[in-house]
Amino acid sequence: MRGYFRDPKATAAAIDDGWLLTGDRGFRRPDGFLQFLGRYKEMLKVEGENVSPAALETEFLALVPSIGQVAVVGVPAPV
């Protein structure tokens, strides 16, 4: 992401030295894997609607008995 459309203040708050500050917390383990710890930001805005990442990723997927572990990655989408 290069920035927010016509909003330099929001862009400056969201991008630091070329990195998009997502609000996720974590670290790289000695074995090279990333360890997710949680979120600083607990709400996403999707087309003006507040969406809880935990509701989408954790609670919903926990309802599927055949799922043991989950990895979430971003992909391009029209919305």
For the report, how would you describe the main beta sheet?
A: 2 strands, antiparallel
Annotation, overall tally of beta strands:
6
Distance from first to last alpha carbon: 15 Å
The best one-word shape is globular
Please state the CA-atom Rg, rounded to the nearest Å: 15 Å
How many helical elements? 2
- Unreliable stretches covering 5 or more consecutive residues: none
Approximately how much helix is present in the residues?
10-25%
Model description:
With 79 residues, this protein is of the alpha+beta class. It has a domain at 8-62. It is 22% helix and 27% strand. It contains two helices and six strands; from the N terminus they run H-E-E-E-E-E-E-H. The strands form three sheets. The protein has a two-stranded antiparallel ribbon with strand order 1-2. Strands 3-4 form a two-stranded antiparallel sheet. Strands 5-6 form a two-stranded antiparallel sheet. A hairpin with a 2-residue loop joins strand 5 (44-46) and strand 6 (49-51). The two termini are 15 Å apart.
